[in-house]
Amino acid sequence: MDLQQMRYVLAVAEHGSFTRAAQRCFVVQSALSHQIAVLERELGLRLFARSSRRVELTAAGQAFLPAARQALEAADRAAAQAAAAAGEVRGTVRIGIIPTVTAVDLPVLLRRFHEAHPQVAVSLRVARSDETVADIRAGRLDVGILGLPAGQTPVGVSSRMLAQDRHVAVIASGHRLAGRKRVRLAELAEEPFADFPADSPGRAQTDLAFAEAGLVREVAYESTTADLIVGLVRQGLAVALLPSALRREFSGLHILAVTGGPTRTEHLAWDGFNTSPAAAALLELLEA
């Protein structure tokens, strides 16, 4: 049994497909399948139930997975710590971000990080703030950039606030309010809204603002991306409340300040208990 075989097993389990797992691991499918078959023969167990259409973990595979994941993480950490002791940062840093990061120019940050630490692999995932916090606590992510309502902080992880931003109303140029510069929250309550999914952190600040004002609104369209929300507004189907820092995405639309509108804070979050050298290097760059 070797570490590469474990990586192949984890990739197949994650993607539910030998083909996609091979693409993720940058090997041909036949080589990946062969190595997993060799491992299964060594163990005397089938790790996957296979058919022409489906791949699923067997009970033995489910039992194998947690320890294999821990073994790989331990091996990666050992290599990273040895490299760090020699003055070189290596390993992988796993980052989770919300879809509407504005406090950090992420592409520029990652370019600078790659230039400073070319031996570090970067894994980037877009997800909800609560999912990212849960993944940091579980050791599946190293660093996260979150968006939360003003006054809230991430629970169970180390964090610091990056920025705070007040939402603006975004409406079509032909909307009845397009001649205004400011609007009260109550004036928007009767409008159909486009917003992030119910119970998501991306929507929480707006729901909270309406609830505190004793107002009820209709969210006619839900989307996980700001691009689609803006597109719906552009077609005159809805209005939206979005961070003002996203203004560059609002070309051709009318923007209004909102009295009593929601405020969002972006937070940097990480596992402060056992920070890897690669994650520590990224955090240091963010502090600069």
TrEMBL record:
<keyword id="KW-0238">DNA-binding</keyword>
<feature type="domain" description="HTH lysR-type">
    <location>
        <begin position="1"/>
        <end position="58"/>
    </location>
</feature>
<dbReference type="GO" id="GO:0032993">
    <property type="term" value="C:protein-DNA complex"/>
</dbReference>
<dbReference type="InterPro" id="IPR000847">
    <property type="entry name" value="LysR_HTH_N"/>
</dbReference>
<comment type="similarity">
    <text>Belongs to the LysR transcriptional regulatory family.</text>
</comment>
<dbReference type="GO" id="GO:0003700">
    <property type="term" value="F:DNA-binding transcription factor activity"/>
</dbReference>
<dbReference type="InterPro" id="IPR036388">
    <property type="entry name" value="WH-like_DNA-bd_sf"/>
</dbReference>
<dbReference type="Pfam" id="PF00126">
    <property type="entry name" value="HTH_1"/>
</dbReference>
<dbReference type="InterPro" id="IPR005119">
    <property type="entry name" value="LysR_subst-bd"/>
</dbReference>
<dbReference type="InterPro" id="IPR036390">
    <property type="entry name" value="WH_DNA-bd_sf"/>
</dbReference>
<keyword id="KW-0805">Transcription regulation</keyword>
<dbReference type="GO" id="GO:0003677">
    <property type="term" value="F:DNA binding"/>
</dbReference>
<protein>
    <submittedName>
        <fullName>DNA-binding transcriptional LysR family regulator</fullName>
    </submittedName>
</protein>
<dbReference type="Pfam" id="PF03466">
    <property type="entry name" value="LysR_substrate"/>
</dbReference>
<keyword id="KW-0804">Transcription</keyword>
